[in-house]
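Budget justification aside, the reviewers requested a transparent look at the raw inputs and outputs of the sequence design task funded under Objective 1. We therefore reproduce one unedited record. The lines immediately below are the structure tokens for a 403-residue chain.
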């Protein structure tokens, strides 16, 4: 695909690639290449390097410190980060909160929060979902009642990614329980150190605990930290969720994982031959690569078309990117685990016997294989967060196919 970009875009890509090669810490690159997720300190350090270069907030207008890139340039940026591989700027700060404050925030909110979000001086998390409100987000039950110049918030959020690192949460709350579900919601900025707020980790199938429950028990939030008008939070939530879907196809990430799969299949031998010589495996890799390329072309077409849409208007076709992107990421994770074979299985060592032949115990899983089973297990989440596959299909049926 790269050869088909204009000379200007090719030069832009080369500049990004050169910068990333020169500034991305080598140990972080190597851990990510093996398939480990970036840690908190890695994410902060790298975002600050990007911010110093003016590249941490690709979608923000120049007046707010953004680089003024087109949609296609932003995709190339994500592509180059994935290729390195390097962490993306923290989506909660950059893709979600930033554009909301730019579009709906007061000048005070913008001045106070935007520079700190760009530099990851504040780590934001997203308090939307609740135990009874996920796909049907408008069913959210967390309430905020007005008391003078404060709201008093009572309720529970769920699946809050990386809340354990966050010092701020943007949150949807119900300010008018009598109104229609969508009409009584407001958007609040909540300090995670507020009395009455507590975070409890949820252990996931991959062994990680990076999603959480957040409990809000009579938490006082200044009215000045409401974004937009009272009871108009649904409009802001829709705007934010539209932005969340941008880049969700993760084409670059899937392509990087496929490159890793090829590399591993060239190194691992079975029956005296490298796995990559197996025609069935070659076919599987090739088929995935073709689909990734098709998704990339679709994504470029949609991003170019989106630049002609009125500001704030979302294209329902973005659901195709979410659907297909999730599927291809899942297939790439499965492919890597299959290539690792028994070596990818972190089986707890049997205390009574030696591990069965050929199956590594947890303490002997080689470093190159260790992240592959957790990554495969976590990949189930791709078709859940950001709107489930079923919801994406309904959007396409209704808004694109007119069914
Ligand atoms: C790893 C991970 C991280 C997350 N991070 C965050 C976060 O940081 N902040 C946050 O606010 N949320 C987060 N979420 C929550 C996520 O947005 C929700 O899980 C998602 O919207 C689905 O909601 P739910 O879990 O309540 O499932 P439900 O909405 O209860 O859905 C259950 C099943 O029913 C199906 N279903 C529901 N409604 C329909 C319908 N109308 N038609 C057809 N099928 C339907 C769904 O597709 C699904 O298969 C995260 C989730 C995961 C897994």
């Amino acid at each position: 695909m790269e050869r088909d970009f204009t000379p200007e875009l090719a030069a832009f890509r080369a500049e990004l690639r050169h910068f990333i090669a020169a500034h991305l810490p080598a140990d972080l690159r190597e851990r990510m290449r093996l398939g480990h997720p970036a840690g908190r300190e890695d994410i902060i350090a790298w975002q600050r390097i990007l911010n110093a270069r003016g590249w941490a907030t690709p979608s923000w207008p120049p007046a707010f410190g953004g680089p003024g890139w087109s949609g296609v340039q932003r995709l190339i940026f994500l592509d180059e980060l994935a290729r390195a591989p390097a962490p993306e700027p923290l989506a909660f700060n950059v893709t979600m909160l930033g554009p909301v404050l730019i579009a709906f925030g007061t000048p005070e909110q913008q001045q106070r929060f935007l520079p700190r979000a760009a530099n990851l001086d504040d780590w934001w998390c997203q308090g939307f979902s609740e135990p009874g409100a996920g796909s049907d987000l408008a069913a959210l039950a967390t309430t905020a009642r007005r008391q003078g110049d404060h709201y008093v918030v009572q309720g529970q959020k769920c699946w809050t990614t990386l809340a354990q690192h966050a010092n701020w949460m943007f949150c949807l709350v119900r300010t008018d329980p009598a109104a229609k579900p969508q009409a009584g919601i407001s958007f609040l900025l909540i300090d995670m150190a507020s009395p009455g707020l507590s975070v409890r980790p949820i252990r996931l199938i991959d062994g990680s605990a990076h999603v959480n429950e957040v409990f809000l028990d009579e938490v006082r939030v200044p009215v000045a930290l409401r974004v937009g008008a009272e009871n108009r939070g649904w409009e802001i939530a829709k705007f934010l969720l539209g932005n969340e879907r941008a880049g969700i196809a993760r084409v670059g990430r899937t392509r990087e994982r496929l490159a890793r799969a090829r590399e591993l299949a060239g190194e691992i031998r079975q029956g005296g031959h490298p796995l990559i010589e197996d025609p069935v495996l070659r076919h599987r890799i090739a088929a995935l690569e073709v689909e990734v390329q098709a998704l990339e072309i679709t994504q470029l077409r949609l991003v170019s078309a989106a630049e002609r849409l009125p500001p704030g208007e979302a294209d329902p076709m973005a659901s195709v990117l979410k659907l297909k992107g999730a599927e291809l990421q899942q297939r790439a994770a499965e492919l890597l685990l299959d290539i690792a074979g028994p070596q990818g299985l972190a089986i707890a060592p049997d205390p009574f016997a030696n591990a069965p032949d050929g199956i590594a115990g947890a303490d002997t899983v080689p470093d190159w294989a260790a992240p592959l089973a957790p990554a495969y297990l976590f990949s189930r989440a791709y078709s859940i967060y950001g709107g489930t596959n079923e919801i994406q299909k309904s959007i396409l049926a209704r808004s694109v196919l007119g069914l």
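The mean pLDDT is 92. The longest strand covers residues 211-222. Computational costs for records of this kind are itemized in the attached budget.
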